[in-house]
Amino acid sequence: MSEYPWHCRFCDREQTVSGEGWQASVVDLTAVNADGPRRLVVQFVVCPNPDCRKLSLSAALHDLKVVGNRSYTGKLIRTWPLVPPSSARSFSATVPAHILEDYHEACLAIEQSPKASAALSRRCLSGMLRDFWQVQPGSLSDEFRQVRGTVDPLTWEAIESVRKNGMIGARMESEGAEILDTEPGEAKMLIGLIETLIVDWYVGREERRKRLKDIRQITGEDAAEKAGEE
């Protein structure tokens, strides 16, 4: 198999996987049944990052196309992430535990219950706004309005693109993590927004702190402060 781009959920890095790090097995169902022929593809991927080398395992169910004596993989029906158990990204410990917990549970629930996943995502977004920006509690839409003009313009554009999609904005008017009707793709969009905001806010803040520390070490400011404290 030729090389292809792949994102490792363990080390959270973009990778290029070759045939040596990829293995797949195929199981075909040809017995007469109510749903028709099916093909199950089970795939292993070993992260090529030498500091990671974790294995990922997933399964995908497809239609099976049979033409004469040959069979082909048809339309994708469903996928299952098995190892790790969800598509959640790995974020640093600088993100509060309760926010990461809601995010991971939203990712775990997305296939079985998009409604529950979306509710957890809304609670996660509210938790981020209250923790990072200390907004006043209210509906999620109101909490977002409190940071308008404060967050980076590109970040606000990402927020608005999700809020204006379908009925997402209307559901954000509800306070708390209510289980509400969910449109197709809404749960995935909310998870995508969570990931964007974690990177922009928490990861970005930690990177700025590290850069400041490096600058202070170069200029000798840290050493001067420590000497003054002694």
Summarize this structure briefly.
The chain is of the alpha+beta class and 230 residues long.
Supply the helix-strand structural class. alpha+beta
Total domains: 2
Major sheet size, sense and barrel closure: 4 strands, antiparallel
Oligomer: single chain
Compute the CA-based radius of gyration: 23 Å
Order of helices and strands: EEEEEEHHHHHHH
Low-pLDDT segments, ≥5 res? none
Description:
The chain has 2 domains: 1-85, no CATH class; 86-230. Helices cover 42% and strands 23% of the residues. The protein has helices at 97-109, 114-132, 140-145, 153-163, 168-171, 186-219, 221-229, and strands at residues 4-8, 13-17, 22-29, 38-46, 55-67, 70-83. It has a 4-stranded antiparallel beta sheet with strand order 3-4-5-6, with no helix packed on it. The chain starts with a strand and ends with a helix.
